[in-house]
Amino acid sequence: MPPAFPPPPSRVIDVTVLLIGAGYASTSVGPMEVFHAAGTLWNRLNRVAAEPRFRVRSASLNGRVVDSTCRLGLLPSCAIGDIDATDIIIVPAAGPDLAACLADAAPLLPWLRHWHARGAYIAGICTGVALLAECGLLDGRRATTHWAHADALRQRYPSVHWQPEHFLTEDGHVFCGGGVHAAMDLSLFLVERFCGHQVARQCARALLLNMPRSSQTSYAAMPLARPHADPLIQRSEQLLRRSLRQEHSIEQLASQVELGPRSFMRRFKAATGYTPGAYLQLLRMARARQMLEDGDASIAAIAAAVGYADLTFFRRLFRRHTGLTPSVYRQQFGPQHAAT
C-alpha cells in the first residue's frame, strides 16, 4: 500500500531546486511553479486567503547564470554553498550526454550526500536520477528513469533496483521521476506527500494538470534488440519479423540458420538479450501498437494479425507490456474516431 501522507506541516517547507548546465529548463522551472502554487494559486482564484506551503529557492554550483540545453539562461537564487536549511532538493534532468553531465556535476555529489545525511528528501528527474545513483544514494533502493537510458544506467549502477516501467518511485527519502514531463508528476506527488491530497488536487486543478501517473511503459519504444554483429542471428531476426503470425519452435529457427538448437539459443540470447520466444512477443506487441496508432482495425483483427487467436490472452499480454488495455491505448495514441 502507498505510504500514509503526513498531515499538513506546521511550518513552510523549504525546497531547493538545482539548476544544472545543459539540462532541461522545464524540469527546474516546472517544479518551482508547482511548489509555489501549492496553497496559493487555487486560493487566489477562489478569492480566499493564500496559505503558502513551500518556500522555493533555486541554486547552481556557483550562484551564476546556468544555460539550459536550449540555451535559455536561468538565474539562480543562490549558490549551493549558501543553502543553510532545506527539506527537499530537486535534481533536474541533465542533458542527453550522461558522461559529460556526470563529470560537470561532480561537485554536486558531496553536497547531495551531505543533505541526504541530514534528512533532506532528494528527488531526481529523468536523467538527473543518474546523479543520485552516482552519489550512492540509490544503492539497494528502487528507482526509475527515462526508459531510453534505463539499460545504460542498469549496467553502470547494478546495485540499484531499476524499475523504468514506473513514472515515479519512492524509497526512503529518495524519489525518482521517469521523464522530462514527470517533473510535474513528481512535484505534485511531493505536494501530496507533504501537504495532503486536497492541497495537491487544488494545485493540480489551478494549474490544469493531471494528478500523477504511475506508469511510463505506454510511452516506451519496444526494446527489440541491442546492436550486434552476428549475421546468423540477424538473419533469424529478419525471419521472425516476416512471419509474426506463425509459431516457431527452437528447432525450426535453428535449422533455418544451420545451427544446433543449443548453439542457436545461446547465440540468440547473447546477441539480442532475449530468448527467441520473448523476442517474438516483443515484435508482436510493437506491431500491435503500430496498428492501434495508425489504423482503425478492430482489436480482434489486430490480435489475429500478430498471431493471437485468443483475444482475452492478447488483451492481458498487451496490458502487461504497455500498462494499458488495447482500447485505452488506442484512445490515447491512435487516430480519432477509430473503431474498437
Automatic annotation (TrEMBL):
<dbReference type="InterPro" id="IPR002818">
    <property type="entry name" value="DJ-1/PfpI"/>
</dbReference>
<dbReference type="InterPro" id="IPR018062">
    <property type="entry name" value="HTH_AraC-typ_CS"/>
</dbReference>
<keyword id="KW-0804">Transcription</keyword>
<dbReference type="InterPro" id="IPR018060">
    <property type="entry name" value="HTH_AraC"/>
</dbReference>
<keyword id="KW-0238">DNA-binding</keyword>
<dbReference type="GO" id="GO:0003700">
    <property type="term" value="F:DNA-binding transcription factor activity"/>
</dbReference>
<protein>
    <submittedName>
        <fullName>Helix-turn-helix domain-containing protein</fullName>
    </submittedName>
</protein>
<dbReference type="Pfam" id="PF01965">
    <property type="entry name" value="DJ-1_PfpI"/>
</dbReference>
<keyword id="KW-0805">Transcription regulation</keyword>
<dbReference type="InterPro" id="IPR020449">
    <property type="entry name" value="Tscrpt_reg_AraC-type_HTH"/>
</dbReference>
<dbReference type="InterPro" id="IPR029062">
    <property type="entry name" value="Class_I_gatase-like"/>
</dbReference>
<feature type="domain" description="HTH araC/xylS-type">
    <location>
        <begin position="234"/>
        <end position="332"/>
    </location>
</feature>
<dbReference type="InterPro" id="IPR009057">
    <property type="entry name" value="Homeodomain-like_sf"/>
</dbReference>
<dbReference type="GO" id="GO:0043565">
    <property type="term" value="F:sequence-specific DNA binding"/>
</dbReference>
<dbReference type="InterPro" id="IPR052158">
    <property type="entry name" value="INH-QAR"/>
</dbReference>
<dbReference type="Pfam" id="PF12833">
    <property type="entry name" value="HTH_18"/>
</dbReference>
